[in-house]
Amino acid sequence: MDKVITNIQQGIADEMAIVVLDLIALVEARVKNQGKNVDGAYFKPYAKKTVEIRGEAGLQTSFKDFTFTNTMWRDLDLLETRIDGGNVVNEVGFRTVRSSKIYDDNCEREKRQIIEPNKDELELIGDSVLEWIGEKLDNYGKDNN
Fold this sequence. Notes:
Elements: H1 2-34, H2 48-56, H3 71-75, E1 76-84, E2 87-94, H4 97-110, H5 119-143
Antiparallel strand pairs: 1-2
Helix pairs in contact: 1-5
């Protein structure tokens, strides 16, 4: 029976890892494509000097998307998924110290977290989880009839 429980927990952990990666992608897309924070407002505009530099580099300047080098976004990842006391624990962060510092500096300038899921993103992911659970229950019912 312990092996069955372990297999179920591992299946849940694997699915939750996918869900977390999807959530990261949703937040990243909102910030990079719309320049909006968790509340739906735009981040502070780029400084005039930054607008000039970004313009010369051919990057958009109409809203802040935190993408000059893309280092921060490239290194944002699910670092670990583990089962701890029956709970699935997902650790999201940056793969490098440099990216972590870039993120911290950006948050300090903004006076808020940049990478934070909003209500709609959480609901979408929640619906995905419920759908996955429903599929597993349906399959379980079919396997045991």
